[in-house]
Structures are given as C-alpha cells and as structure tokens.
Amino acid sequence: VTRVSARGSTVSRLPRALTLVTAGKLLDMGEFKAVAQLLRRQRINLNLCVDHNPSAFLLSVHRFVAQVHDPQWLSVFLAELTEEDVTRTIYSGFYKQMVARGPPLADKVVRVCTALREAMTQSNENQDFYLQPILSTYVRAGHVGEAISLADSDQALSYLALLIDTDKLYEEALGVYNLQKALKIAGKSLKDPKEYVPYLTKLQQMDPAYMRFTIDKRLRKPQSALRNLVQCKDRTEECIQYVKSSGLYTLALELFKDQPEEYKQICLLYGDHLLNKQLYEEAGLMYQRGGDVDKAITALTRAGSLLQCLTLAAKQNFSEEALVEFHLALLSALLNQEKHSEAAELHSLMGKHEEAVSCLVEGRLWSRAIFLCHQHKQPQLVESLVKPVLLESQSRSLMDIRAKVADMEKHSTRLLVVREQQANPDRNFDALSDIQSDTSSLSSFSTSSGGTRSTKNTRKAQRKLWSLKEGNPREEQALLYTITELIQNTERLTSDVRTTCLALAELGLDTEAGTLQSAMTAALEKIQQIRHSVWPGSTAKKTGSDADAIDPTLTDMQLKFPPTSCISATWRLDIYS
Description:
577 residues, mainly alpha, two-stranded antiparallel ribbon
C-alpha cells in the first residue's frame, strides 16, 4: 500500500496480515536478518521472533545472533522482550487459524536471555562488540549484580544507568560489594556527594567481612549479613546480639556448630525465644543443648513432657524434698493439659497408686484404671473408685443422648412449621426486608476494619442471623444450623459409648451397658428419620475427612445438604445388640 504523506513524500506499507504471513515464512526458513528488518520497518512487536515457534528459536539462537549481527537491534529486542505470547494476544486473530500451536514458553524472558547471552559470548566477535546486549540479558533476567561486575568501563556503567534507575543501580553495586563502581554510579545520580562519599569511605576502611555485613544489613539481607558477621572473630558479642534481633537462630546454630561456647549461647537465646512463643518442648531441648538443665526442666514441665522431665531430674540428682516439689509441679502441668495417662504414670512412680487410679478415672480411661487396681493388688479400688464414677458416666451419657434427641425432635418439628409458613403465598413481605437488612449489616461489618467495636457489632449481627427466636426471618437457616450441630455431636458420642460399654461389661454391669447402647442405637435411628425429613432427597455433600466440626460461618447453600456421618465404624458391641 502506497500513500502520500502530508509533506508530499510517498510511504509504502504492507497490510498487517501480509506482514505477519511474510514474517512467519521468514522465521520458518531461518532468515532472521530479513525478518529483523521487516519487523522493525513495519513496527511489529519483536516478541514475534520467539513466540512464532519458541522451541525452533531456542535451537537456532546462534544463527539468529550471527545473522542479525547488530548489537543495537539486539538491545532493542531484549528491551521489548516480555512473558506475553503475542501470538495469543495482539496477533491472535492471525495465529488462531494455526491448529498445531504448542504451549507458551515458560520463563520466556530468562530462557531467551540465557540462550542469547551464551550465543553472543561464544561468537567470533570481540566480547566488547556485544557488551551492551549482554548486559541487557543480565538485567532482563534479574541478575543486575552480574551485569555490574561485567561493566568495567564508564560507558558500560552509563548504559546500565539507562536501563535501571540510578538509585537502584547504586544499591545493586553495593550488593556486590564493589565500592568503586558504586561511587561511579552515585556520581551519575542526583545524590549529594556529602551523603555517599563519607559512607563509601567508611566502608572502604572496614575489615572486608564486616564491610560486607554492614552493606547486607543496610540492604536488608539478614542471612547474608549473619554469614559475613560470623567471619569477624573479634565481634562475637555483636554477632550474638544480631542473631537475637534478626531471629536467625537456626542459621546461627549451623554457623556456630564448631564453636562450642558460642553454640551454647545461641541455644540459650533460642530457648528463650521458643519459650516466649509457648513452644515449651522445643525450648526445653534448646536449654538442654545450652547446658541450662534447670531452665530445660522448667520448660519441659510446662510442656508436660513426662519422660524427658524425669530423665533430666535423674541427671540432676535432686534431693528427696526437691524431687517431691518437682513431681508436684510436673503433676500440676500434666493435669492442666488433661494428660491423665501421664499424670497417672507419675503418681505410680511416686507410689501413689490410689491417686493414679483416680487420674485414669477422671480421664475416662476405664480399662487402664481397672488394670492398675489389679496390678497393685488393690481390687477394692475398683469398687470404691472406678465403679461409682463409671456408673455416673453411664448415667450422664444417657441423659446427654436423650437431651440431644429431644432437642433434635423439637427443632425439626419447628422447622417443618416454618417451611409450611414460608410456602404460604400470603407471607408477610416485611420478612424479606429484614433478611436483606440483616445480611447487608453482616456484610458491612465483615468488610470493615478490625476494631473492637466493629468486632462486637459483627458478633451481634451473627447472633441475630442465627437466632432460634420464633419469627426470625432467618429462622429456617438457624434451625438447620442447630440440627446439623446436634446430629454431629450426637454421632460423635458413639466412640465414647463403646468405651463405656466395654468397661461396664468388664465389671459385669450388662444391664447398664445394654441400656446405654440401646439409647445410642435409638438416637441414631431417630437421626436417620430427621435426616430424611429435614433434607428430603438429598445426599451428604461432604465426604471422608471433611466431617469435622461444622463451621459457624456456613453458607445457606451448605445448609441445604445433610451433614456427613460422624459415627464410629465399630462402636456397637454385638453382645448387647
């Protein structure tokens, strides 16, 4: 197409489609010089050189460099290079007709830059000939430090200053610890010499390792900073303080593993750090490595780590009075964490077998409690300690099961009434307005800032939305939520019911065991009926491990499905079926 410009000169342009066809054919033939001239003349995106056939381009990259043989064009090409596949975006109208299109090139910029750099480095030309595009390959691939190391001349540094902001380039030069180049780059920026010259001079006067540490600390490279500071043998105390401030305890342990004294100091600091995070067991391990057994025992006691505590106590050779005090502290920690089995074991070690049985009974560990009674030749403890609490537990379980079933029946009956009212076409229109008001209120609260007042308002709105008060516009959803919770909590009782029934059977209390199992069986049958009436024709949406405690933020859509069964697979005893 030939046109006459405003000045009167003639301008020839190919139609875009014809240009793309021509460029594609040239690329297929490997005529890279011709295609380079065509794309630049017709202002076609240079990414087309790669995106037309990425794998073929990477295989032909040496030929590409040799044919183009123009550092300036290669620099422009690298500047235009992006992760975008232009055959799928700006030129997709032409390329969508090509059926056999492979996937886009992953990590396109890095891979193309690496391939071009290798080709230019291995060419027969003097390396300075391709210096600028080689520098561009490093910059585009994110390796600015390597580009700075390669840029030896003032001209090369000036070129880098065109590619990268001079302030960032200055920081990168510091990052490779090249103070001379940092000084030159700073001179090309708008920085005040009174700021950077004294700083660079001060760095120059430092020990090399400490200089690297100072730079890394400024550039917020804590791991590299610590590695360099460790090399400064006369700055051990500063190093330990830096470990504490940076929190790099794990790296410090690795770096100081051949320096016993410093290693112990790091262990103690790490122990304090873990203790503050309430990671008591790990803190105890660090204190042990640091040689502070008293702190280790304190931490492990708070963790309730019975065996580790007893091992350390044995190493300490406590007096009898101190050992009793230690046992009591450990026992308190175990009971606070509801570790009844470990607490019972500690009682046994102290010779307090009756207290050990009481701990096991409190933890509903019936079989172990009965075993302990007979192990220590005290069968009377079964009658005095185990049996009364076991019967009381059976009675409470019966009451709990029956109460849950009664609540489920009440709420499911109410749900049917609510649904019948909603099906009434004369339903009050105001209810819909209330629903929208409550829902929008909750939405506004949940998207607001996390202040105390906002949190309270959110909770208030949530309570209103899930209220079981009759007439609540969202009463149906609230009832579904409550029924779901009741079903899951009841089904989870099956495991505990089995344990209780086994203990009752062991003591010959068949009537009580049979009564409890029958109540559980009746409850599960009632749950099945409620499932069918509340969720007619539906199947459980969740499966397998998703049968966890229900989320209080369940959506209305989730409530349309019945909860997954939480019944223990082997809960029922055949002898009472």
